[in-house]
Design a protein that fits this description.
There is one protein chain. Helices cover about 20% and strands about 20% of the residues. It is of the alpha/beta class and about 290 residues long.
């Protein structure tokens, strides 16, 4: 109950004398480290009510653990004695490769056909913006796949800048990048899926609405993300494109800042020159 975030460190496997580890009721994600299997003195483990995913290790001290160690973690899989669903094959990495291959196929088919208007909902914005699709990995995790529009000037630079920034940051109110797919002609990000879409539709579409508490919580979430970017990094990060369309909401209506294609890393004592501004078309909404 400490509001811890991020992955459980693999280095815990170096704590040879550890006999009790209680990480319950936090916001920890990632997999449960297999390095814990070597802890011969570990008698008690509790990672309940976090957000981990993947397979629960089964060797070493895990042979003595029960479902009580893993309660409330829907993303976990493994031995039925742990009270979780069985893991499926192929592995998540293989599933990621399948997604990548499918996206390459769609991209090549699109470029070959030279269509100006596409009827498929997942590809409809391909000519004007980035294409976003939804996928499911073999372990049941739902992901969002953002494909770069190759016809957008400066798109590769934007992708490379975004990857550079995302490698350095991790926060509850920032969209988590699960993986990336790229080759000389193709770029895609595998992202944490946000069930409630962008903040924009809740502010400007008549079919959606937010109550006062939800609005306040969203503002707090965005503020915490910006505070983290500006003050909790060795090199501050400036988003440069903050707007409702780049604020995504998960199933609990928690705000996550996304799209770091324009972000800048402020490096102390280093002069940088911006020769061209890359961005999205349209106006900046009031209050953003």
């Amino acid at each position: 109950m400490n509001s811890f975030e991020g992955d459980i460190p693999q280095s815990f496997g170096d704590l040879k004398g550890l006999d009790m580890l209680n990480l319950s009721y936090n916001n920890l994600s990632g997999t449960i480290p297999k390095s814990l299997e070597v802890l011969s003195h570990l008698k008690y483990l509790n990672v309940s009510f976090n957000k981990p995913s993947g397979e629960i290790p089964s060797n070493g001290p895990f042979a003595n653990f029960t479902a009580e160690s893993f309660l409330g973690n829907k993303g976990l899989c493994g031995n039925s004695i742990f009270g979780v669903r069985p893991c499926k094959n192929p592995s998540s990495q293989e599933s990621g490769a399948i997604i990548f291959a499918a996206l390459v196929y769609m991209l090549r088919k699109h470029r070959k056909s030279k269509m100006q208007n596409l009827s498929s909902p997942s590809m409809g914005s391909f000519l004007t913006d980035h294409c976003c699709c939804q996928g499911i990995l073999s372990d049941g995790i739902i992901v969002a796949v953002r494909v770069l529009n190759l016809q957008l000037d400066g798109a590769f630079k934007s992708f490379d800048a975004e990857c550079k920034v995302l490698r350095t940051i991790r926060h509850r109110n920032l969209v988590k990048v699960i993986s990336t797919c790229s080759n000389p002609e193709f770029r895609a990000l595998i992202l944490q899926y946000m069930a409630n879409g962008s903040l924009e539709k809740y502010l400007y579409h008549h079919n959606y609405c937010l109550n006062l508490l939800q609005r306040v919580n969203i503002m707090i979430g965005i503020a915490l993300a910006l505070e983290y970017l500006h003050h909790d990094q060795s090199e501050p990060v400036v988003h440069c494109d903050l707007k409702p369309n780049n604020i995504l909401l998960d199933e609990d209506m928690v705000a996550h800042v996304s799209d770091f294609g324009l972000a800048k890393i402020l490096i102390e004592n280093k002069d940088t020159t911006q020769t061209k501004t890359l961005g999205t078309l349209g106006y900046i909404a009031p209050g953003t």
